[in-house]
């Protein structure tokens, strides 16, 4: 992969140090992590609004910052478009004035032509003479994008582009934003603390925690192979558990957990081979734990692997789904406080199986649903 | 109204207008620097500009004499060089009013500039604008109402300036006797009708100014 963006920066602030390093190719990079992890600061360093203490920033072969060589291109000449959190539209200018703001050095006619073109592409022609306060959240987002894109930047930076919106609108605009970014074919770096947003918008995801990058990987890889427990925890992965290795081959891993012997598929791309007896971190998505119906006498071993049984100790109604907290029929301390596994079932299943009345169930885990994490 | 009163009114307006213009010229850049920049001596500048708000005007006038009087720190070289001194001219009244009004403008304008979202300025930078152009095209237009309100307050303060003006400019009828000084003289000499007329004129002007400042203030918020 040829890298379009190379970031390697260090910036110390009172009580916080950013020490981030990652690269990215074409497409959209999502910087994901909790608030205060240094994502926005990274964006500001990329734009030249904040000067790092040390390091190097290269975009498309152009060195924008190099502490050793003494290079620090000012924001005015970085060819970077910035969509601010809350959009930062100029309230005293119309939509046309906002979109044309970065085109001052072009001739009057050329400027008008370019603004018209951008407005048309973003379906904003009808609002050209309106002021930002007269626009809806979605229209504001498009104006902010248009203003940044009008100057043909080499890189587009977006800081929490959807956080200013209500939840229903947010989902619609997330898809709209994705289409705009794809349609424009521009390299973009986007900051978000919402995992769904990172997944829907980012081709590559860079996970931040406390000023550091703990994983940078293509989207699919991150979802199924978080590089460590730290990444899994930040990603809000539930049922993050620890077992003891029995046997590991490139095809599968056998391990012991809470008195059970479980079988998991090994990672197809990078087989992980822990030594027998060594600790092993894994996670099971709650929606992948299967409940076994009691009206089936025979249990098909091909379909029902990793069988276990337990009691529902608590449950939470989430509307569309129910979350069940299950304690296995094993002596000893449960793995997660007063329960071992979190299980998510659709509402319909919950009603059909009458789970409300029956507290004791058998469960199975498909080999492919157990995700083993390289330890860290 | 007597010719003296009319001359005082005219002089007061002239002094207040020039002092307000000087305030705009000096005060807006100071307000911007205090709101947006970090520099050595910022605290001192802030203190110096604000002092006239809390010091008795006579004390400010005294400092101005020490600085600009015929034997003053700056005044003496000027006098030796040109034989001219600012003391007891209407320029002295302008300088005294300017200094006394400056804190009102700087504080109001600074608050207005502070309230402009810094992301708007950052956006302008990424769109190719220099800091100066950004200030002129984004920051100041958005802080406009607050700055205008500050200028109106400065005008009112300059119009009513008494103590510092008396110290530096004296009370020379027709030359440095502004309305407040004229009122003082009228009361001292028992010309109560004269005093009443000027008091009424000044009160009406000040009320007008406050109404305008409030309008601007609410629109800014």
Q: What attributes does this structure have?
A:
heterodimer, A: 376 residues, alpha+beta, Rossmann fold, SH3 type barrels, OB fold (Dihydrolipoamide Acetyltransferase, E2P), 3 domains, 6-stranded mixed β-sheet, 5-stranded antiparallel β-sheet, 22% helix, elongated, B: 221 residues, mainly alpha, MetI-like fold, 11 helices, 80% helix, 0% strand
Explain what the structure shows:
The complex is a heterodimer of chains A (376) and B (221). With 376 residues, chain A is α+β, with helices and mostly antiparallel strands. In chain A, strand 10 and strand 11 (212-218) form a beta hairpin. Chain A has a six-stranded mixed beta sheet with strand order 7-8-9-3-10-11, with helices on both faces. Chain A has three domains: 5-226, Rossmann fold (3-Layer(aba) Sandwich); 234-283, SH3 type barrels (Roll); 286-367, RNA polymerase II/Efflux pump adaptor protein, barrel-sandwich hybrid domain (OB fold (Dihydrolipoamide Acetyltransferase, E2P)). The mean pLDDT of chain A is 88. Chain A is built from nine helices and 21 strands. Chain A is elongated and about 80 Å long. With 221 residues, chain B is mostly helical. Chain B has one domain: MetI-like fold (Orthogonal Bundle), CATH 1.10.3720. Chain B is built from eleven helices and no strands. In chain B, helix 5 (90-114) packs antiparallel against helix 9 (163-169) and helix 8 (144-160) packs antiparallel against helix 11. The longest helix of chain B is centred in the N-terminal third of the chain and has 34 residues, at 3-36. Chain B is globular, with a radius of gyration of 19 Å. The chains are: A alpha+beta (376), B mainly alpha (221).
């Amino acid at each position: 992969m040829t890298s379009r963006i190379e970031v390697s920066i260090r910036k110390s602030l009172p009580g916080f140090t950013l020490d981030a390093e990652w690269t990215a190719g074409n497409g959209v990079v999502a910087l994901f992590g909790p608030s205060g992890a240094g994502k926005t600061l990274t964006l500001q360093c990329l734009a030249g609004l904040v000067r790092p203490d040390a390091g190097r920033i290269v975009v498309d072969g152009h060195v924008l910052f190099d502490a050793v060589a003494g290079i620090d291109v000012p924001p005015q000449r970085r060819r970077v478009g910035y969509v601010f959190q809350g959009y930062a539209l100029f309230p005293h200018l119309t939509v046309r004035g906002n979109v044309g703001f970065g085109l001052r050095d072009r001739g009057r006619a050329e400027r008008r032509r370019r603004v018209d073109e951008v407005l048309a592409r973003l379906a904003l022609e009808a609002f050209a003479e309106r002021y930002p306060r007269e626009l809806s959240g979605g229209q504001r987002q498009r104006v902010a994008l248009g203003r940044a894109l009008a100057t043909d930047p080499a890189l587009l930076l977006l800081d929490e582009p959807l956080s200013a919106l209500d939840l229903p609108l947010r989902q619609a605009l997330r898809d709209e934003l994705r289409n705009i970014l794809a349609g424009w074919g521009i390299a973009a770096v986007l900051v978000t603390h919402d995992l769904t947003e990172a997944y829907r918008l980012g081709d590559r995801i860079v996970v931040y925690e406390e000023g550091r990058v703990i994983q940078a990987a293509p989207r699919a890889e991150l979802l199924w192979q978080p590089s460590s427990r730290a990444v899994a925890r930040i990603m809000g992965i539930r049922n993050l558990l620890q077992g003891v290795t029995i046997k590991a081959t490139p095809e599968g891993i056998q391990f012991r957990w809470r008195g059970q012997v479980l079988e998991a598929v090994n990672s197809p791309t990078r087989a992980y081979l822990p030594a027998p007896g060594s600790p092993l971190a894994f996670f099971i998505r709650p929606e992948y734990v299967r409940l076994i119906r009691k009206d089936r006498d025979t249990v098909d071993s091909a379909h029902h692997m990793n069988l276990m049984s337990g009691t529902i100790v608590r449950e939470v109604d989430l509307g569309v789904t129910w979350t069940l907290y299950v304690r296995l029929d094993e002596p000893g301390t449960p793995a997660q406080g007063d329960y071992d596994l979190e299980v998510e079932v659709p509402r319909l299943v919950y009603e059909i199986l009458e789970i409300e009345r029956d507290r004791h169930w058998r469960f199975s885990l498909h080999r492919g649903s157990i995700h083993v994490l390289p330890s860290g | 109204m007597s010719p003296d009163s009319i001359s005082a009114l005219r002089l007061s307006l002239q002094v207040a207008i020039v002092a307000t213009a000087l305030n705009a010229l000096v005060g807006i850049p100071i307000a911007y620097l205090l709101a947006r920049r970090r520099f050595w001596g910022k605290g001192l500048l802030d203190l110096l500009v604000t002092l006239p708000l809390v010091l008795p005007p006579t004390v400010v006038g005294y400092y101005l004499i020490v600085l600009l009087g015929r034997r003053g720190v700056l005044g003496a070289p000027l006098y030796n060089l040109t034989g001219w001194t600012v003391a007891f001219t209407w320029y002295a009244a302008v300088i005294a009013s300017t200094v006394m009004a400056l804190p009102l403008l700087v504080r109001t304008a600074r608050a207005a500039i502070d309230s402009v979202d810094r992301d708007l300025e950052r956006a302008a930078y990424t769109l190719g604008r220099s800091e100066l152009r950004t200030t002129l095209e984004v920051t100041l237009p958005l802080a406009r109402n607050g700055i205008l309100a500050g200028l109106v307050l400065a005008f009112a303060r300059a119009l009513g300036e008494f103590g510092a003006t008396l110290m530096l400019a004296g009370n020379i009828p027709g030359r440095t006797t502004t309305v407040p000084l004229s009122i003082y003289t009228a009361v001292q000499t028992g010309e109560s009708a004269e005093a009443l007329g000027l008091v009424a004129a000044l009160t009406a002007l000040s009320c007008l100014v406050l109404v305008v400042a409030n309008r601007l203030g609410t629109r800014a918020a």
